[in-house]
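Quick log. Single chain, no ligands specified.
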Amino acid sequence: MLDIKFIRENTEIVKASIKNRNLKLDIQEVLDLDSERRKILVEVEGLKAEKNAISKKGKPDKTIIDEMKALSQKVGNLDIKVDEIDRKLGNLLLYIPNTVHNSIPIGSPENNIEIRKYGEPKKFDFKPKTHIEIGEDLDILDFPRSSKISGSGFCLFKGLGALLERALINFMLDLHTREHGYKEIFPPFLVNRASMTGTGQLPKLEEDMYKLKDDDLFLIPTAEVPVTNIHRDDILDESELPVCYTAYTACFRREAGSYGKDTKGLMRVHQFDKVELVKFVKPETSFDELEKLLNNAEKVLQRLGLVYRVVMLSTGDISFAASKCYDIEAWAPGVEKNLEVSSCSNFTDFQARRANIKYRGKDKKLEYVHTLNGSGVAMARTVICILENYQQQDGSVVIPEVLRPYMGGRERITK
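-> predicted structure:
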């Protein structure tokens, strides 16, 4: 969340950021409550000073005692009022998004900027099939049976399809731990409300989450949630930073607003696998660390031999908690689309304030860390891109060379 002092002292910056996000959100109530709170605190300090002055008059008589009681009652009533304002203010602050970085484009998704491209799309001597056709022909993806089991928006991986999924997970974890310096984490897939609030999913996005009926627990939408909350309420030492974690988890999203969007096959599913990258860094290095994070995610696609582009998101397309974000979009020739397989974000101190994650500097002063996260990468759409880019005219799929050691040395997926 944003610091109330920052909002007070940078009101126009906050308002401009909200406007540039294409949001309709009035922060005047926040400012009014803050002003009222500070006035009451001044009044409380005055009453306490008056109490101190009276107490120094010597041996108290009945008049002095009555005065002291009256002042104490006033202070108590004002303290109750401050507590009420704090609750209201705290709730309102949870709905104010992070301020956007001044380097990102202003506007809607159409204003996103392509930063760079990698590779050239493959030219086929035949009309490329979609991953749905390929998966069904090879009997490695089964959407009818997954619908029977769970409903629409799920996928059943079979045989070499399941092995391909597992190979991708292991390859990514090995790459990020062995070459990029991340520590592997295997977190819970269910988290409490405090964890979801700490990373910014709640309260704003609660309708998009899967929630347990009898417990106040949520299925994670991303490993970012449990991994970031590892250090909730912690004080890290400056010498520990940056702290870098990678984690595989299944991810669960209701996709409540996805009606009319691409939902066929693996394009937009309610459950998917993802390897996540999370960083806790010093504020002055966070935007440099974002570029490193992005490069780490790109390396996955480079090793897989996939064509992709990097896009800087505009103010109207960036997530609630992010200050700056890059998307990596891989080319899928069967569906003829660039598909988002990774988002890499710098949240500055927005999540750290919500989750109370600080570090102690060399001067012993406590400051909030900056948190970053990125998909390193998401599996469902990466599987789409592998199947569609590596398909052959005979219906087989060549396995990317980097995955072959994880698939028993196989070179192809065949019928």
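The radius of gyration is 26 Å.
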